[in-house]
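Sequence in, structure out.
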Amino acid sequence: LAVMTRAGLGHSGRPLTATTPISAIYILANVAAALRTASPFFPDAYKPVLAVSAIAWSSAFVPFAILSAPLLLGSRRQSVTT
């Protein structure tokens, strides 16, 4: 997600800065990965932990798609040189 965000921002002529929503996307993706990795260590709660991991991943990817669509489908911004 980070690489795709950076490429989308760069190729669309926007500043390469992580806004608050973009940072939240990265946090949710990392939480999802951590929960998925930790799930085997909790055999009694394996499926619920996986479910929370799936929810966290979806909660990261849906806003990513919504934020990235205008970048990737729109025209490139003209850079202003001062």
